[in-house]
């Protein structure tokens, strides 16, 4: 040591040799599902094969069926599932027992240039570059074989008369298709597809190998090739690199990859990143991903406080109005100089075809796919993609537009609706020239299209003033009716009086009035109006028979329901009915509550606590009042108990029933609580009224 600063002295120098005899055929096998202490060295290797280009290896190893850890019954069952009862040369397990398992490889890394196998002998280090690093994992292909046998048996059992099948085959028409000229972009996509890669992998033949154990003489002979065969000093090259250069050769710096952040997400939108973009880009990105959206939903996705007028200007740049909803423009989805991912059709042709599909939806709710395809003459994959953007398939009705008509937007923005209508007239004239059709060919005969009416600013102001006056008169009438209604007790208000007493349509938690008090606050009256249907709150607008039938069936099943839960069940009911088979497409709270009163049900004025977090529809509780059986009186008494408190103990209910009806059996009490109540923390609540 020349100085005290050098604290890393050279202890020994080792000569390093590069062995090349096995450089192109040396693989490292790893067994990640097996501990390193449990090797396969002593396990019988039955067969081995390799696909050199893919670096894919399969090994068959014997299973010790005599081991105490081996389940013989399971092994026999697996063999029976795979091979069945027959035993021939195609059988996977010849001894009718799972006596072997297959290991299949996957590449741990595709770049092995920095990996080598090294052996140390007599002060010399010999390294051999690795061709591949493979991880061997158990293969369960025998399960696929068992599944195939099961499917074959099921197909054989379900098969009919073969002669009839042949006759059916002969009667089928043969469709001849001619292959289109494949574009370069389509060819690149096909080459990179999973199906193409699987096909290429299957084309390479297996090369069968002979396995030699670790202690075999042939293995010992092959291991000698891990040492450099020529150690002539004249052939050795002197290291003339500086220490820094040598270190850079051993550990080259990693090339920094330029990560380009996407301007707009493709499938999953990051709202935080989206809101950093300009408003126009936000609207464009949202519409490009969602394809079709009501204006109210679009405003809900944007940051709070966004100017709706500015959004309207932006949305008209990237979308068109269809049935009151905004649908992204075709040239936004298919920019210029691009082509279809399915067929390679140019973007210009795709835009014309998609515009025709959207134009058809401006005329009617449903279209037929075959009719569309016969006119625009595009491949079926592209036509299906157009329809999937804006519609959903319905049984026996073709493709129906995804969203209901947004009448509120059209009424609120008549100038925008008129401008969009004029824009569609221009698009229609172009489509008529391209596809040679007339608008009259598609006009629904039972649903004539109304002519657009241009409304000036003064007319809109006058209409708004008239609507405000009408709302004020309606509010005054409702208040007068509520004052007259508030003095009628729950059990004395007959359903037949509803002609003179309008139904309480409040959407506020404080709308439940009992003996002049609302949720414990005397004299408090609150009204809310549901504007989902323009005439839904009129006493003369009777609920439809379909709605009354649904309400009656639902209450006979649940007995007690909140308004919110009933609306949820009704929405599920509507969703389960195929489109076009039900008359009622929309409903209001007014209609639903009127239907409840007509179905022998009444509102239960549950005194919720003042700090209750339940929504208004959750505080409107209704119970089935009369079914015609003697047990109705028990339910009515239970409802009366819950007008005193929103939660009650079982012994209180039991005592009240005994006081009114004498000895009531435990079975009747259990039935009553099961039908109308839910238990939580030792207390009983009416269904849907449990407060968190």
From TrEMBL:
Region annotated Disordered, chain positions:
147-170, 461-515
Offer one example of a GO biological process linked to this entry.
tRNA transcription by RNA polymerase III
**Where would you find the membrane-spanning parts of this chain?**
none
- What InterPro entries does this protein map onto? RNA_pol_III_Rpc5, RPC5_C
Q: Which residues form the DNA-directed RNA polymerase III subunit RPC5 C-terminal domain?
A: 444-692
Q: What is this protein called?
A: DNA-directed RNA polymerase III subunit RPC5 C-terminal domain-containing protein
Species this chain originates from: Monopterus albus
A Gene Ontology term for the protein's cellular component: RNA polymerase III complex
What ranges does the record list as Basic and acidic residues composition bias?
147-156
Q: Output the Pfam families linked to this UniProt entry.
A: RPC5, RPC5_C
């Amino acid at each position: 040591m020349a100085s005290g600063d050098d604290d890393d002295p050279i202890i020994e120098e080792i000569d390093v040799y590069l062995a090349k005899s096995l450089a192109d055929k040396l693989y490292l096998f790893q067994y990640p599902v097996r501990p390193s202490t449990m090797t396969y060295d002593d396990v019988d290797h039955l067969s081995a094969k390799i696909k050199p280009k893919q670096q894919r290896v399969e090994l068959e190893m014997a299973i010790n069926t005599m081991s105490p850890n081996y389940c013989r019954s399971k092994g026999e069952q697996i063999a029976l599932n795979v091979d069945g009862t027959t035993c021939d040369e195609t059988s996977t397990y010849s001894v009718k027992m799972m006596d072997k398992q297959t290991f299949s490889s996957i590449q741990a890394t595709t770049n092995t240039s920095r990996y080598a196998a090294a052996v140390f002998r007599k002060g010399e280090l010999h390294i051999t570059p690795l061709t591949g690093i493979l991880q061997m994992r158990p293969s369960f292909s025998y399960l696929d074989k068992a599944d195939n046998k099961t499917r074959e048996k099921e197909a054989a059992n379900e098969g009919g008369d073969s002669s009839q099948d042949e006759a059916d085959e002969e009667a089928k028409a043969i469709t001849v298709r001619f292959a289109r000229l494949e574009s370069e972009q389509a060819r690149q996509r096909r080459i990179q597809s999973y199906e193409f890669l699987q096909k290429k992998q299957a084309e390479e033949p297996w090369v069968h190998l002979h396995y030699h154990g670790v202690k075999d003489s042939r293995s010992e002979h092959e291991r000698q090739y891990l040492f450099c065969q020529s150690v002539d000093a004249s052939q050795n090259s002197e290291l003339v690199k500086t220490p820094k250069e040598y270190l850079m050769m051993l550990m080259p710096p990693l090339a920094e990859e330029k990560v380009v952040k996407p301007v707009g997400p493709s499938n999953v939108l990051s709202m935080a990143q989206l809101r950093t973009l300009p408003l126009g880009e936000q609207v464009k990105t949202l519409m490009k991903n969602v394809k079709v959206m009501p204006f109210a939903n679009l405003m809900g996705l944007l940051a709070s406080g966004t100017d709706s007028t500015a959004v309207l200007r932006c949305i008209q740049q990237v979308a068109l109005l269809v049935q009151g909803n905004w649908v992204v423009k075709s040239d936004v989805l298919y920019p210029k100089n691009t082509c279809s991912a399915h067929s390679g059709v140019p973007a210009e042709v795709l835009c014309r075809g998609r515009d025709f599909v959207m134009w058809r939806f401006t005329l009617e709710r449903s279209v037929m796919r075959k009719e569309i395809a016969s006119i625009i003459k595009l491949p079926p994959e592209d036509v299906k993609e157009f329809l999937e953007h804006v519609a959903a398939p319905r049984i026996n009705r073709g493709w129906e537009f995804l969203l209901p008509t947004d009448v509120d937007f059209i009424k609120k923005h008549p100038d925008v609706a008129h401008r969009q209508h004029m824009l569609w007239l221009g698009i229609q004239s172009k489509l008529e020239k391209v596809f040679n059709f007339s608008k009259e060919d598609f006009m629904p005969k039972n649903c004539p299209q109304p002519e657009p009416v241009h409304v000036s600013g003064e007319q809109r102001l006058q209409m708004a003033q008239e609507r405000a006056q009408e709302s004020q008169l309606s509010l005054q009438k409702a208040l007068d009716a509520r004052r007259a209604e508030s003095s009628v007790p729950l059990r004395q208000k007959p359903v037949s009086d509803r002609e003179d007493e309008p139904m309480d349509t409040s959407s506020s938690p404080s709308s439940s009035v009992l003996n002049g008090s609302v949720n414990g606050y005397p004299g408090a009256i609150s009204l809310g109006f549901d504007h989902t249907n323009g005439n839904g709150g009129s006493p003369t607008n009777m609920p439809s028979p379909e709605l009354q039938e649904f309400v009656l069936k639902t209450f006979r099943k649940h007995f007690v329901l909140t308004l919110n839960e009933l609306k949820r069940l009704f929405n599920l009911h509507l969703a389960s009915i195929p489109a076009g088979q039900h008359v009622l497409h929309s409903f209001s709270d007014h209609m639903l509550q009127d239907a409840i009163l007509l179905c022998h049900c009444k509102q239960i004025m549950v005194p919720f606590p003042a700090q209750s977090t339940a929504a208004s529809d959750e505080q409107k509780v209704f119970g089935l009042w009369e079914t015609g059986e003697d047990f109705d009186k028990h339910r009515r008494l239970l409802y009366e108990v819950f007008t005193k408190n929103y939660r009650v103990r079982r012994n209180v209910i039991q005592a009240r029933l005994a006081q009114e009806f004498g000895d009531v059996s435990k079975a009747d009490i259990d039935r009553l609580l099961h039908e109308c109540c839910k238990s939580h923390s030792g207390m009983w609540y009416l269904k849907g009224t449990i407060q968190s």
